[in-house]
Amino acid sequence: MTESLTRGVPGIKSIKDLPVLQDAPPPGGFPTIRIERRLPNTGPTGAAIFAVTAAIVGYGFYQLSQQKGETRFSADEIYTVRQIVNPILQAEWDLRYLEHQRKKKEEEARIMKDVPGWVPGEPTTKHRWLPPLESWAKRSLI
């Protein structure tokens, strides 16, 4: 050992004075090292994964098409029912509108009874707006 490691003990003066010790293989040599890849088969192949995924996606699209058909059928049914009921609802709304107009004219006549020459329900400005379906509703009531 060197002086620096064995403090206070006289030893060799240089590292070169140490005896040469060389590692050598054991008698008969080292055992051979296997360097070939031996990976275990740990799962399905890429083609199998792709096939399963394609089958799942295909089944999903099939279910979507089936659901779309059912949704279209129910939407057509709702549309047909609405088309049947629509004239009745429209007639009710027209009657409500005419009743509202009548009440409005009565209120206007009551408020403006002291104004000479005032005609209830007559427009005060010149415009071309027509209430929705008022003429049709009047014809249906006759």
From TrEMBL:
This is NADH dehydrogenase [ubiquinone] 1 alpha subcomplex subunit 13. Keywords: Electron transport, Membrane, Mitochondrion, Mitochondrion inner membrane, Respiratory chain, Transmembrane, Transmembrane helix, Transport. Belongs to the complex I NDUFA13 subunit family. It is a single-pass membrane protein. The keyword Transmembrane helix applies. It is found in: Mitochondrion inner membrane. Its main location: mitochondrion. It comes from the Eukaryota. One of its GO terms (cellular component) is respiratory chain complex I. It comes from Chlamydomonas eustigma. InterPro entries: GRIM-19. Complex I functions in the transfer of electrons from NADH to the respiratory chain. Accessory subunit of the mitochondrial membrane respiratory chain NADH dehydrogenase (Complex I), that is believed not to be involved in catalysis.
